[in-house]
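Sequence in, structure out. First:
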Amino acid sequence: MTNAVLAQAPPHAENALSVGIEGMTCASCVVRVEKALKAIPGVTKADVNLGTETVRIEASPDVNYSAVQQAVEKAGYNITEEELDLDVEGMTCASCVSRVEKALRKVDGVLDASVNLATETARVRVAGGVAVDSLVKAVDAAGYKAARHRAAAGTAATTSAGSKRNEGLHVAIAAVLSLPLVVPMLAELFGLHPMLPGWLQLALATPVQFWLGARFYRAGWKAVKARTGNMDLLVALGTSAAYGLSLYQLLINTQDSMPHLYFEASAVVITLILLGKWLEARAKRQTASAIRALQVLRPESARVRRDGNDVDIAIDQVRLGDLVVIRPGERVAVDGIIVEGMSQIDESLITGESLPVSKQPGDKVTGGSINADGLLLVKTDAIGSETTLARIIRLVETAQSAKAPIQHLVDKVSAVFVPIVLGIALATVAGWWFATGNIELAIINAVAVMVIACPCALGLATPTAIMAGTGIGAKFGILIKDAEALEVAHSVSTVVFDKTGTLTEGKPKVVDMAPHGIERIELLQLALAIQNGSEHPLAKAVIDAASELSIPALPATGLKALPGRGMAAVVNGYDLRLGNTRLMKELNLDMSPLAARAAALEQSGHTISWLASVNGGAALLGFFAFGDQVKPSARSAIEHLHALGIQTVLLTGDNRGSAETVGNALGITHIVSEVLPADKAEKVAQLKREGRIVAMVGDGINDAPALAAADVGVAMATGTDVAMHTAGVTLMRGDPALVADAIDISRRTYSKIKQNLFWAFIYNLVGIPLAAFGLLNPVVAGAAMAFSSVSVISNALLLRRWKPAARHVNQMQGEQR
């Protein structure tokens, strides 16, 4: 965290600082914060505005963020923090990334900055009150162009298309001008010695050097002004040296013989690097195709039914509760609940599910999916940034803009890369001049050193692989929250599964009821009174069973949840407890009248809930047996994990008999049952203490602590928002086979990262010494440099050919249906 001074207010208020404060509720809070801030040495004034939750501080220039933050936190409040995204133009290599990050971190109030070369974006974490303009100015001062991140795909695509045409035209012109300079060099391979006149070589090379190569001079000069270096500076210096030497030789030559000129080296090197950059830009656009594909799904308008009329309005004018009409063949405009109509919905671009999903009244639909054949009326329940599609895009963007831990090593290398290369180039000139006395040869070898050195490949090695990996994962319904989750997931050795809703359908049904001392209908009616309105899967099963028999719900009072055990309530004078065997044992309930029957049902894989009255002592009223089907793909999912060498564990709060039935059916040997929600996290921690890298897979609120405790949390999007927020990986459909696919894509992505970094480092470690020892022609060095970054991106793009095993399983199941 930087110690930079806080965000300054408008220029006319010199030494005035403005920052947001969280947690203030009254005038006493205001007094407390002001008192804490005024106690900081150098602070002359502190005015807190409760309405806007901001504080304006007048202080000496040496007052830093840390002092203000500590004072505010000591007073019991927090400084508001937010993340801002910027588009950054002009970056060409890892050294540029380092420079932009350094410039942003120096801005008053910036807490951290992370720049991604592949996406050409910067994510900046700032204290509340920092203006985007101050960040833009800092980037501009560092020699680059910045603007607030464009969220719309259309603008970016238009800009990209125009830039692509210009780059392609420049490459073509450079190639036409350079080709005549290369022909004589190629002809020498066949024993021919044609040679263009010196003045013609100069005429062909000059526009390539100073017009088409002007971008290298501009960027290089900005680097010099910022007292740093980048790839552009190396190219500008190297090609200028070759061009300048050739021009000098041409001007001083007084003989009729042709002097040794190197115009072809400078011109061809620039041409090849322009070609490499053009190919690199094309490849980078392909790595970002996943985001663009998702952005295209964003609907621009919706047909809303108001006062009986259907009206087309802009999507940002739709409000919660609006009824939206979706015609056959149209894209679903909003997230919502179907209130009328039935249809098949194609959700493949959002969940990765290849088969259309049947929908009927009461079912949820997701904006961006396609309505196949029915007219639907949908009640809107999410808009703007809270829609599923918006959250998916946000997750993918966050993952693609984040840095993997391994990238920090690259950042350290790139920070000193250019100065080291320039030092090697100077040593090459001195060494060759001293050894041979031939300054011409010394300069040409130094040119080769500067031209072949490539920090670009280093900067692109990690982010391009992460973009490709997270992008292809998103395409098939696997959302990876950040680069760290991706990096850790590849080394997972144990996967822990919750049972209900994860390996089973999560839609249990009442398969048996056993009353004791009361009628069967009364048993169900009492249970319904306790469970009515609950979202728990077992509660829904009781509600459905009562609904089938048209049993009305009795009023209940004193409703109380007993975590990991059950529920308590008072119904018709009965003080009732509905829950598992653990709860009944705590009540010292005699379950022997129904124990044998319950045990048999548990052994056959059913879940038992007991009902008891505690009026004057615990009395057994009966039990319910619930059955839940195992998901069709669950067994193949476990087999796939075992094939990958990963151990599996079943961790559930359910009874041992039910857990063992499911575990044995799926091939899971390590089964932990009857675990309270609060204890799940400790079981995961215990596995970690054994030296395992643990992934936890769950879908409910009670799984959130265990998801957070695991090395990698994997949440089913069919579950709760709490679980998804806690997890590092979210599966957009409740298919356990996607767990193995998520680990597989992380392994392949991490493998690409390692391959790219290996080749990027080896390329420089081998290429620079060869050039320094005079074993590389500058033209060959330029070609190698130009295609090094292209090869890194192309290697990462191979990830786009990946196909999940889960997709093939689903297709086969669909065909069988």
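Second:
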Amino acid sequence: MLVEVAPLAPLPGLLTYRVPPRFDGRARAGCRVLVPLGRRTVMGVIVDEAGELGELRPAEIKPLGEVLDSEPVLPADLLALLRWTARYYLAPLGEVVRAALPPALQAQETELLRITEAGSEALAAQSAVLRRPGQDLDAKAQALLERLAASARGVTRKTLGATPAQLSRLLERGLVALSVQRRRPAVRKDLIIERVEQPAANGGAVDALLGRARRQSQLYSALLAAGGRARLGMLQGAPSGARALAHKLADKGLVRLEEVEIPRDPFESEPVSPDKPHVLNDEQRSAHEHLLGAARRGGFAAFLLQGVTGSGKTEVYLRFIADVLERGRGALVLVPEISLTPQLAARFRARFGERVAVLHSALTDAERYDQWRLIRSGTVPIVVGARSAVFAPLPDIGAVIVDEEHDSSFKQEEGLRYNARDVALVRARDAGAVCVLGSATPSLESRYGADSGRLERLVLTQRATSASMPKVEIIDLKTYRTGKDRVLSAPLATALEETLARGEQAIVFLNRRGFAPFVLCRACGHTFRCQHCSVSLTHHRSRARLVCHYCGYNSAPPEQCPACQAPREAIGMLGLGTERVEAVLGERFPEARLARLDRDTATSKGLRAILRSVGRREVDVLIGTQMVTKGHDFPDVTLVAVLCADLGLHFPDFRAAERTFQLLSQVAGRAGRGERPGRVLVQTYAPSHPSVVCARDHDYEAFYGGELEGRLELGYPPAGHLAAFRIDGADAKLVERRAREIAGSARLRAGSLGVDLLGPTEAPIQRLKGRTRWLLLLRARERRALRTLLDPLAAQWVGASAGGLRVAVDVDPIGLL
């Protein structure tokens, strides 16, 4: 039997291997395997059977080295989704499979070869006068077995020095066995301790059995206080050395002990209080009834839930998921940012208890492995996670929720360039599930899909509580200059002072981290730029470093200008970052309690601590990047300040205006979600720009109509379809030549298919991580025409090539920088 294997490596296509007889019945689709690849052994996953050998000789097809799983780690439905993802995004299937497996299941195992009992007998019989059939060994086989016999631990393939053919013959004859040492997180275990109602050991009463063993008595009393049954590691009042004491109590017949596996819980130290379903308003009730009706009818259905900020979309999700669970099916909930996961997961845990698992990159490998196993086993029916959670092995999915569906974080920009929102729609379709895309500011693609009938649009126009939408005021920075600190205009400074005086909270938003994003010499104009990227270095004062936010290169702040030797005093730290804003506000409002939320502070534990502090009113002003704009619900925040609405507005990207409108609308929606009214102040140099005006007026429809008109005229999404070839390499001339070669190949058919070529040209960020970058865009009104041209081009050009060139294709690109 032959099988097709996707190696966990960026290799195009699948590889075919022979299944040795010892793996009959075990080599199934979805199982991980070790396979020879050149001189290496790599991990892969069986994706399909490839028939039988037929006229091929066994020696012509390499055998599987090892089957690592007794049961498939990837179920059939998920494997089908991974294959679709690889086809659509023109990616190696092994790379897609890698995205679906937790890191603990990808760690390269160490193979060890050992001599078997049959091998030892054959070796011993080699010197005997009479040999049984099958025990004859050639000189090389004998030498290999002698080497194995000398090692009790076993040896690796490399140390043994056998050719693949020699080793295969020894394995198939059963003279050698291959074992695998797997580096996985240790399984966490604990003891369940349970009181025995009528102690039988040695007879006698409990007091007599405990005697004068004070610490045993203390443990026994703690067990009684806990109701007679508890997890030893969580038992309140247990003395130190409780495990040894528990075994002594068991020896006396007072308790029963059971060792159980305890999955690591990322939120074990963060208990939540159960909540009850909230009363739905008329719009929420109507939306819920539409979703419930689709679930009852069965089959795939897709909805766009468009609701203003604070309209209670999450409560609609929760109600609908409860319905899905009652029908015995599971629910997958995707969020764009790790920063949203703890808060949203807490809402779900408050409603559904321990039936919720989380998946995101901030978990440790061990936590992620345990959460993944709970999902795969069907123990938990709800998964909440970021982008890669779309590949969670959740059985029988009935609902797929994509919250903040407009967010560009759902598109992975490196390696496997997939959009989790779009994959989620396909997963729901294949599962016969209901998919809900939720947003206050839907992407133009999703809204256009609703207008075209591909999605059913449900609308929430009012906030779920009695709160009204916040009043948004525009501060024209051409009129109201910022002070010496270059942060606060007079109206904004006054508003902050008044908010703090009332004991209310504020959010200050600036989508740029660090202290100063631009460092230059005032004497000669020299700018400090990354050695590897065509970007300026950002000064991070807390670290005392100049840092590149793209490649991580960093250096100490200069003592003098390297160009003109001007002293340190001539070096200017220009521009604003969240770190500088924090320093300015700290000086301006010394009594205010400040916190900063950006990539520099948002480690897994730091993120949770900051959000908890804001929720507990331990923070007066939260300063942050776009991480503060998404989904957070802080009822005591009454003021939101946008320090510069123009950042990103004029990027060389056709989606720049859309992103600006979404950011402004989302951050404005953090204000006034409680009993007190909200106020939003937006500082800008472009007060009449449609993105700013429509955000001020909370008018999504006006923005959508105006932006769509331009897209329809130019053929950009959603009126058309895009694909990008991204070419990069260390040699700028080779990169340019390859980009022009690809464009030349594309032009041969582009015109006849109705596909426009934009470029090739240098990417807006021309150099990144030491590599020159070029970009070629393909644009077409019809997807079929685009794919007719794109697929053969990708097959011809994508991948690594001579000279260190790298060519990647990006289907439905989101970012063009």
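Remark: The first helix runs from residue 76 to 88.
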